[in-house]
């Protein structure tokens, strides 16, 4: 992994993660897709509320990516984080809420009202109170977070230059990005052997 790439990816991760350092609470409202880097943005918010049918996931965990913010483990714990990142699956907002990945999931028609109600409830609390509660909670996570995120940033770069990552890149160049991503996400392509998985149903 080149120094330039490491610095660039690290800078993106720090920009995304600056939101935990913002004194005011940050609520993320997800009404469509929060996938790949979008999931990093959603999970770095203080509170995340999703529409029940919205989707969240980090599909590049299958090949060509590692979530640099490492927020999956901080929100889910190790076992459920592994379940998500070992498969690269997308899940619905309802599944994410039931798993504890996000605060809540509501019908899409109720999403705006749900988020506004939460924001109004917190707005009645003095900002210094909010800032102190947020700092205490974040401090507990940050004891290990920075080292974890540095490692994740290194691994994110390595995934793009591993033999499998290069095979994915070449496949995308040969058949187009959409087809290569479909093969990655459906698990029908063997990125080590660089060919279709035997018996797999092609997308």
From TrEMBL:
UniProt keywords, alphabetically: Lyase
Q: Which domain of life is it from?
A: Bacteria
Q: Does the keyword Lyase apply?
A: yes
Q: Where are the transmembrane segments?
A: none
Molecular function (Gene Ontology), one example: enoyl-CoA hydratase activity
The record's listing under Pfam families reads: ECH_1 (PF00378)
Disordered: annotated span: 183-203
Major enzyme class: lyase
Q: What is its EC number?
A: 4.2.1.17
The protein depicted here goes by the name 2,3-dehydroadipyl-CoA hydratase
């Amino acid at each position: 992994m080149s120094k330039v790439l490491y610095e660039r990816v690290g800078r993106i991760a720090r920009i995304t993660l600056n939101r935990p350092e913002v004194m005011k609470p940050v609520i993320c409202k997800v009404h469509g897709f929060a996938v790949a880097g979008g999931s990093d943005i959603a999970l770095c918010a203080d509170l995340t509320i999703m529409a029940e049918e919205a989707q969240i996931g980090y599909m590049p965990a299958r090949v060509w990516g590692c979530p640099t913010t490492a927020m999956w483990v901080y929100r889910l714990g190790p076992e459920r984080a592994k379940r998500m990142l070992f498969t690269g699956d997308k899940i619905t907002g309802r599944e994410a809420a039931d798993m504890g990945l996000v605060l809540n999931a509501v019908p899409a028609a109720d999403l705006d009202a749900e988020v506004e109600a939460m924001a109004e409830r917190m707005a009645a609390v003095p900002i210094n109170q909010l800032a102190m509660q947020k700092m205490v909670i974040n401090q507990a996570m940050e004891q290990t977070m920075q080292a974890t995120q540095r490692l994740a940033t290194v691994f994110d770069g390595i995934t793009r230059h591993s033999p499998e990552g290069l095979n994915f890149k070449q496949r995308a160049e040969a058949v187009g990005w959409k087809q290569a991503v479909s093969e990655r996400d459906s698990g029908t392509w063997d990125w080590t052997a660089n060919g279709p998985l035997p018996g797999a149903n092609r997308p």
